[in-house]
Amino acid sequence: MQAANANGTETGATDDFVTVYVGETLFGLAIERVHDVFVPSGVTPVPLAPAEIVGLLNLRGRVVTAMSLRRRLGLPDAEPEADGKASPKMAIGLEQGGETFALVVDGVGEVLKLGADSREAVPINLDPRFRNLAICVHRLDGRLLVILDVDALLGFTAAGAKAA
Amino acid sequence: MDDLLREFLTESGEHLDTVDAELVRFEQDPNNETILRNIFRLVHTIKGTCGFLGLPRLEALAHAAETLMGRFRDGLPATSASVTLILLTLDRLKEILADLEATGTEPAGSDDDLISALERMATGPAAVAPPPPPEPVLPEPVSRELKPGEVSLDDLEAAFLSAPGPDEADFAPPPVMAAAPAPAAAPAVRPVPKAAPQIEAVQAEPAEAEPARVEKAEGAEGETAAASKNQTIRVSVDTLEHLMTMVSELVLTRNQLLEIARRHEDSSYKVPLQRLSHVTAELQDGVMKTRMQPIGNAWQKLPRVVRDLSGELGKQIELVMVGAETELDRQVLEVIKDPLTHMVRNSADHGLESTAERVAAGKPARGTIRLAAYHEGGTITIEIADDGKGLNLAAIRKKAVERGLASQADVDRMTDAQVAKFIFDAGFSTAAAVTSVSGRGVGMDVVKTNIETIGGLIDIATTAGRGTTFTIKIPLTLAIVAALIVRAGEHRFALPQVAVLELVRVDAGAQRVERINGAPVLRLRERLLPIVSLTGLLGQAAAGAETEQAGFVVVAQVGRERFGILVDEVFHTEEIVVKPMSVKLRHIPMFAGNTILGDGAVVLIVDPNGVARQVAQGSQGTGGHADSDADESIEVTDSKTTLLVFKGGHDSFKAVPLSLVTRLEEIECAKVEWLGGRALIQYRGRLMPLVPADPAITIKSEGTQALVVFSDGERAMGLVVNEIVDIVEERLDIEIAADRSDLIGSAVLRGRATDIINIAHFLPLAYDDWARGLKRPEQLSTVLLVDDSDFFRDMLSPVLKAAGYQVITAASADAALGILHAEPQIAVVVTDLEMPGRSGFDLVAAMRRADSRIAGLPVIGLTGAIGADAVERARALAISDLVAKFDRAGLIAALAEIGPAAVSKAA
Q1: Which residue has the higher pLDDT, B329 or B212?
Q2: How far apart are CA B828 and CA B842, in angstroms?
Q3: Chain B environment of A42 (Cβ under 8 Å)
Q4: Distances (CA, A) of B814 to A162, B786, B838, B842, B877
Q5: Distance from C-alpha of A95 to C-alpha of A61, rounded to nearest angstrom
Q6: CB distance B596–A58 less than 8 Å?
Q7: How far apart are CA B89 and CA B39, in angstroms?
Q8: Minimal Cα–Cα distance from A42 to chain B, Å?
Q9: What CA–CA distance (Å, rounded) separates A95 from A33?
Q10: For labelling alongside B17, which of A19, B232, B309, B370 has CA 20 to 30 A away?
Q11: Distance between CA atoms of B287 and B284, rounded to whole angstroms?
């Protein structure tokens, strides 16, 4: 925050973000929270589970709970019917409380090194779902990058998910 | 470089490092036999392997070092010079090993310098030594009398030699060994003189060495003793847990490999795989054993608890413990420890009578609590039995009704075992809650919960005056279970095998799943088994998927509940490693965890307890569970009903719920009077019409005639039957009869197809005006009956019609709202409160928000069980009355009460 106030600090510390996209929107995840990037396969759906949870999958012998970023953001599932099969997705391995989660996204982009100079607070007119999950927004060339709060992302409870 | 060599290098490297460290210790503590033995063994191993691998240089060097060390063991004092020499040798060995690792061959070169030095060190002094030992100082310690507690050196030497040690074999080769201990009279002293010339620095006072040696030897002796005594070591639980996890992974990997092997014909790796499989199994067993503890550990406190209680309560109590050595998983032990203590305390406190009572009852004054544990299959059974007075079932029944856990009719029908289980209900606990005399059940709900969390089961058997036995069955371990892999819908699931009794294949033929109003049941050995479909349970059933007929029914038993789980396919059984569910999914009661199968797929482990709860929820569900997923079918199939079975015409079996029957009568046929073509008899000062139960029955003209009397207020009706057969308590699984107003449907009772008659059909036959009822409202009110179950709609519509109402039915809250808007004449709404999707509460809430006509309509709620929660919600929504689902009389009474009010409001 302080860095953001000090205008144009070129020497300001930069952070690395893994970018992912869902539909047209670009999201960023702090790189130190990202343990893995992989193609989710063999997902076992969990009946009666909160809608956000896509299912369980086997990631190198560990059972990982896969969660859809789309559903978490309240977006509709990707349009799969175009050519029969769902478009290949990517998943980001995240860890919280000793458990591994897979965040299923539409695609993974490059890793960006971003300084405080492009950082903006989350616009207040954003959908509350976005607002609750976003930390800040970075102005990139021609597009915006919404930085997601990993803990908030994984912080839904069973009850909360149901209510939401 | 071949694997053997590589292995040798790794191993030798490790050994040399150890020897390095040990040597340094040995130098500081030259009398420590253990260290020396260890070093000796390591070097010997290296030497042996070198010889085997054909590495002459290493072997020669190691041999020389070993020889010197052998001398140490014989008593040659370790001088710093000799230790340095050995350390140098070790360095040289390492150098050679490094070269060997780099090039794969032993480097050329000579170690003669070291070898000769070592030999000199070993033989040199020894050559001096063997000659007679008379040294001035030395005999002294030997000649002196042994102090009490001291042992002669000969004895020590003998003890040392006879003591088993890891390196015993190593003692044999060096010939010095055999010679050393035996000969001289004062042989043990010999080392000292040898040492004397060289090592003043280390051992300034040779004499001192003597007592030290004695101590040491004693130490060695003590060590041996310790070695046999100390067969256990303390290992941190974390280490074991980690080991367990790794073994679990190994099991999974093994399973994966076996899965692959199953698919391939190539048998070249089948044999090693088989061995791997065996080794894994043994490893798993071994690791499991490390987690095992005797159950006695959990019982340790109990004698004390009972002793204290015995004093406190003034009862004589004997605690008998059987099978304390039965082992079970540490984790399981932790979980059951407290419940066990609790239950024993309960038995002592509430189960056993006071001494005076016991004597009065002719029992031994001393009460007995018997704890027994034993293995049974893959489970451990623990019994806690007392020879006390048994549970006061009458009081429990009463309390259950008071607490709204079941209706009076329900508890009357329940078996004692079912009633006893009420003590496991939360809050059904304190002594006052049952009666002052029998208060067993303090926190029994917690006990049950604890046991169920580890997949255990608890059961009660009680005999009045004879005592109560709790039986707990728990799995040996939680980590690995045998499970049945099944398919339901598109996915596979694992069902723990503990709960599975049998598998029944069902198809469209003889063994077929029948449906009663959509609720599947199976005739299994002449009993109807309620079936839940796994897909349905998990909310995956596609609409209209109920036509599928082929599949398997997994007959499962949880507690005393027996039910069938319908699955599409059964694959095989597999040992699975239970992995806990993610915290995000732990709230789903259907799953106990998940696992990775041999093919790498993740499957969910179905929790039979969760399924059983879901099955039972149908009959015991409280109002608060309006949105539960249990389909209504379970509700119908699971509740037991007491039925009166009688014979109608052509000896057909018919039945009627006993709760509707007022009396059974046997009348003399001569007393039957005929008035205007109707049969009547004088009954209790009134005329009672007689109606045949079916057209095939004719009222007999002589002898006696059996009657089933139904009454409503002052009116009574005699149903003429051929013969009263029996009263049975059965799950009422009714198949709806088509187009027969006199029958509700038919069911299998005691293995016989039996028609269930519809009383509503017969009442108007007896009294033309009965149909319109006595307390009929001034004008014909229209009732909207909302119930998702066809069965209840079909059952209640005639009842309401018989009571003089016009009935419109709706199968869901949404349909009901539509009808309410379309049909302005509706005066009262009767709705089931527990419906899938939008519940009755939702419906009423929606009504209250609608326009004033609909918002003001009186509502009667039907519910399976009237809990405080439901009552509160009902009050908040201005629901006029709550009526239990089976209570038809109550419903009519509630309607009658509302009737005038509604009319006046409408006016």
Answers
A1: B329
A2: 17
A3: 600-602
A4: 21, 10, 8, 10, 18
A5: 16
A6: yes
A7: 13
A8: 6
A9: 7
A10: B232
A11: 5
| pLDDT value of residue B901 | 52
**Cβ contacts of B629 on chain A, cutoff 8 Å:** 48
Mean pLDDT score of chain B: 73
Cβ within 8 Å, pair B602-A156: no
Residues in chain B: 907
In contact, A130 and A74? CB cutoff 8 Å: no
| B256 shares contact with chain A (CB less than 8 Å) | no
What is the distance between the alpha carbons of residues B370 and B386, in angstroms, rounded to a whole number? 6
Q: How confident is the model at residue A19 (pLDDT cuts 50, 70, 90)?
A: very high
The 10s digit of each residue's pLDDT in B622-636 is 333 333 333 333 333
- Shortest CA distance from B600: residue in chain A: A58
Closest CA to B479 of B288, B669, B341: B288
Chain B partners of A103 at a C-beta cutoff of 8 Å?
Answer: none
Q: Which residues contact B665 (CB under 8 A, 6 or more apart)?
A: B683, B706, B707, B708, B709, B718
Q: How far apart are CA B773 and CA B503, in angstroms?
A: 51
B566 in Cβ contact with B791 (< 8 Å): no
A99 and chain B: CB distance < 8 Å anywhere?
yes
Sequence-ordered strand ranges (E) for B640-703: 640-647, 653-657, 663-668, 673-675, 678-683, 686-692
How much is the average pLDDT of B341-347? 84
Please indicate whether, in this complex, the C-beta atoms of A42 and B594 are within 8 angstroms of each other. no
pLDDT band at B833 (very low <50, low <70, confident <90, very high): confident
Total Cβ atoms within 10 A of residue B355: 18
What is the spatial distance between Cα B30 and Cα B36, in angstroms, rounded to a whole number?
A: 8
CA torsion sign for B265, B266, B271, B272 is negative
Residue of B503, B501, B499 whose CA lies nearest to B567: B503
CA distance A123 to chain B (A): 30
From the list B249, B583, B604, which residue is nearest A44 (CB)?
A: B604
What is the enclosing helix (H) or strand (E) of B168? helix B168-171
Residue the block writes with tokens 């371990």: B477
- A98: contact with B, CB 8 A cutoff: no
**The pLDDT of residue B349:** 81
Closest residue in chain A to residue B251, using alpha carbons only: A61
| Per-residue b or e along B99-127, where b marks 16 or more CB atoms closer than 10 Å to that residue's CB | bbeeeeebeeeebeebbebbeebbeebee
Q: How far is CA B139 from the centre of its chain?
A: 72
Q: Which residue from B minimizes the CA distance to A67?
A: B584
**CA–CA separation, B639 vs B657, rounded Å?**
13
Round to whole Å and give the CA distance between B418 and B460: 9
Instruction: Measure in Å the smallest separation between the Cα of A120 and chain B Cα atoms.
Output: 32
DSSP string, B203-230: -S-HHHHHHHHHHHHHHHHHHHHHHHH-
Q: How far is B541 from chain A (nearest CA, A)?
A: 11
Instruction: Note whether A82 contacts B: Cβ–Cβ < 8 A.
Output: no
- Which position has the token pair 């109560």? B468
Angle ∠(B394,B397,B402) on CA atoms, nearest 5: 125
Mutate which: A41, A46, A65, vs B, most B CBs within 10 A: A46
**Closest CA–CA distance from residue A18 to any residue of chain B (Å):** 24
Decide if pLDDT at B620 tops 50.
no
Strand order in the sheet with B640-647: B723-731, B640-647, B653-657, B752-757, B743-749, B735-736
Over residues B871-891, mean pLDDT:
77
Orientation angle between helical segments B191-198 and B206-229, nearest 10 degrees:
130
Edge-to-edge strand list for the sheet holding A53-59: A34-38, A90-96, A99-105, A62-68, A53-59
Give B849 to chain A, closest Cα distance, Å.
22
Contact residues on chain B for A67, CB-CB shorter than 8 A: 584
Chain A residue numbers with beta carbons less than 8 Å from the beta carbon of B598 are none
